[in-house]
Amino acid sequence: MQLEEMKSLWDEMSLKIDSQQQLTNKLIMEMTQQKFRNRFTTLSLYETSGAVICFLAAILILVNLNKMDTWYLMLCGILSALILIILPILSLRAINGMKKIDFIKSNYKETLVRFTKRKKNMMLIQQFSMGISIILMWLVAPVFLMIFSGKDFFMQDYSTGTLVFFAATTIGVIFFVRWGYRCYKRITASAEKDLKELDI
Questions:
Q1: By residue range, what is the domain housing residue 46?
Q2: Would 174 be classed as within a structural domain?
């Protein structure tokens, strides 16, 4: 075999290897992209279920707002309905923003910057939601008591057992929202690990 033929054959093999490497890199990127999106799709399903419950509760409150016969019950009703509508929308938008991050159309640095910014936004919304959820519990209790029994929550005499129940429920809500926040942290940490494992 002559030198020119060997050179031509070598160049052809190099092109095939480069082409194969590019295809492999693209497949790795697409698989990582899908894995990344799947993490947030799972989170989105839970949030969507929660959002449906929140919207139904908000509708129930708004339909029965005429039953709130004092200014403070009316305030509790309006604030409860607003929180039950706004918080799920904010959470779903943040998750959707994470799902839309595209590894393939952007370079690694841009993708990482976009991810970091959206992760920070999503976690801030979750921290805000944690605090608001505890307040929401105490806003909703008087509203639902008035809707379902016609009694003013603030005018009732409560036994020690009932007060203990309220305290236990508050602690339960705190533990639940902290558990939810830890789930968000775990999922975003896993997604970040997927992203950082890409060797672009």
A1: 25-196
A2: yes
Say what angle helices 3-63 and 160-196 make with each other, to 10 degrees: 160
Cα–Cα distances in angstroms (integers) from residue 72 to residues 8, 139, 153, 154, 173, in the given order: 86, 10, 11, 9, 23
Q: What is the pLDDT of residues 115-153, one digit of tens each?
A: 889 999 999 999 999 889 889 999 999 999 999 998 888
Residue 47 falls inside a structural domain: yes
Question: CB–CB of 98/195 below 8 Å?
Answer: no
pTM: 0.79
- d(C-alpha 1, C-alpha 158), whole Å: 100
Mean pLDDT on 63-90: 95
11 inside domain: no
In a domain, 16, yes or no: no
Q: How many domains does the chain have?
A: 1
CA distances from 176 to 148, 160, 200 (A): 25, 24, 39
